[in-house]
Amino acid sequence: MAHDFRRPSRSPLANIRVSFEFFPPKSAEMEAALWDAITRLEPLDPSFVSVTYGAGGSTRERTHSTVARIVRETSLKPAAHLTCVAATREEVDEVVRAYHAAGVRHIVALRGDPVSGPGSVYEPHPGGYATSTALIEGIRRQGDFEVTVSAYPEKHPESATLDADIDVLKAKVDAGATRAITQFFFDNAHYLRYVERVRARGINIPIVPGIVPVQNFRQTASFAKKTGASVPQWLADRFEGLEEDPATRRLIAAAVAAEQVLDLVDHGVTDFHFYTMNKADLVYAICHLLGLRSHLTERAA
Ligand code: FAD
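Above: the input record for the complex with flavin-adenine dinucleotide. Below: its predicted structure, written as tokens.
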């Protein structure tokens, strides 16, 4: 269903909640860019902000220090991503305890990708948590954490069927997960059908759509291929011929994401998770369209 921009069906858009995902920076320059993004997005009062964990556990320290700085320097509630990859259970438990000590009470628990990258066979670390379900149980043994997990509207590439994938989600919920964030998708029908099937399976936790504003079409399309997210031809067509025209690309990206989230709102969706890529402006604009305003401005008024 196309959204009619002239007649917003929910005006003002009430009860919308957002969360933002960042990745830990690799250099001083990237750190400055991340903090510009955090500072710009913080006044929108997100439910939480999450910080990813590098493939193969490569960012253990950087994820921790980014999350700890968010606790120290902002009013935001951080969620730390954590995977089972390349670590023993004791090492993972130690990371969880360090988060608890730093005041973090929310973990995004993931199995993680195989060490040699998506597409290769996943081998659990000997002595490590073998699945995301085992990791969730481990986290909950360490303390009172809110645990969010992944969900795959177009199924995880390793799952034989969507039903098998939903079985994994059910196991994660039974282990204590209280929210799922989806892999990004561009065709809302995938998400809406998926939520229907998940509900039919008796899973009642929020299934928050993960929205990726297309900062760079080629990169997004190649990432989508690895993650099993489909890229519709209409999306490719919209970015066609704009390889050397970043300004127009950004306008198109804003329009595409706006159309997607407003259509989801029309279908009753109230919570959105944005993959920010550590850049604020597109996400800020989309949140503005969703009716979110800086609480700093409100206070000043
Ligand atoms: P799960 O949902 O646990 O399972 C993935 C697949 O493994 C299943 O579909 C199934 O085929 C199989 N499987 C799992 N458990 C069982 C079982 N008990 N029995 C049989 N088969 C099983 N990656 C990172 O490295 N760092 C991150 O910070 C990160 N953040 C992410 C955030 C979100 C919101 C999403 C959607 C993904 C994220 N990923 C991240 C990617 C994720 O690590 C990969 O997709 C990974 O391949 C699967 O991890 P998972 O926890 O999603 O897997």
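Notes for the reader.
The chain has a mean pLDDT of 93.
The radius of gyration is 19 Å.
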